[in-house]
Amino acid sequence: MLRMLADLVLPVPCAACGGVDGPLCPVCARHALHTEPMFVPAEVRPGGDAPAVCVAAGPYRGALRSALIAYKERGRRTLARPLGGRLAAAVEVAAVRGARLLLVPVPSSAAAIRERGGDHVVRLARFAAATLRQRGLRADTATLLTMCRVPSDSVGLGAAARRANISGAFAPASHAGRRMRGPHGSLRGRTTIVLVDDIVTTGATLAESYRAVADIGLPVAGAAVVAATPPRSATVYAVRDVK
Ligand SMILES: [Zn+2]
After folding, report:
1. Which of helix, strand or coil describes residue 52?
2. How far apart are CA 117 and CA 147, in angstroms?
3. How far is the CA of 125 from the centre of ligand 1 (A)?
4. The listed CATH number (1.20.1070, 3.40.50, 3.60.20, 3.80.10) that belongs to domain 36-242
5. Single pTM value for the model
6. 14 C-alpha to center of ligand 1: Å?
7. Is the pLDDT of residue 179 over 80?
8. Do 80 and 28 form a contact (C-beta atoms < 8 A)?
9. What is the spatial distance between Cα 129 and Cα 112, in angstroms, rounded to a whole number?
């Protein structure tokens, strides 16, 4: 709360370089917000062999990385709008055009949500959906998933260990079934579901989200994230090279 008040009355430094003109100065914004969306390699796609794509708005480095850390760990909520805009760019590449898009945020633990004063991925998803609507697309968000088991810290774990660590951690939210049947009819067959998260590392979290949404009986078209950590082995292809 104090930080939010301070953000309103004090000049906010740039989250990336620390200079004046925050929350992102024009130079850092140019670096952080104008990265080329890229497909994340097949080995870290959600669902393993499933025909789902994962697109990141940019690599997790430089100003984009600083902005994400400031947003996620230092309570710089004003960065939700520009970072949500980046997420929207990734969704646009990942999703089928013309369909009604439903962005499903990857769930966070209740403790993390409390600590951060809200769900940082849900907030990004909402700004992303708003950006997509401004561009004339039909887009909405739905928190279909919840974290039912908190996994251990995955820092330093490899892909297989991360996958085992998070396996079974997500479940349908209590309202997910209602959302499916819903007053407006079933979600099934009328929407293109895109999983969204802030950062992809090995893809284990997205794979678990993919499984949990598939268990509800809904197909997932793909995943979109703000940033991808550089892969250790595979090549990341820029979108323009693939299309
Ligand atoms: Zn800066």
Report:
1. coil
2. 17
3. 24
4. 3.40.50
5. 0.85
6. 5
7. no
8. no
9. 23
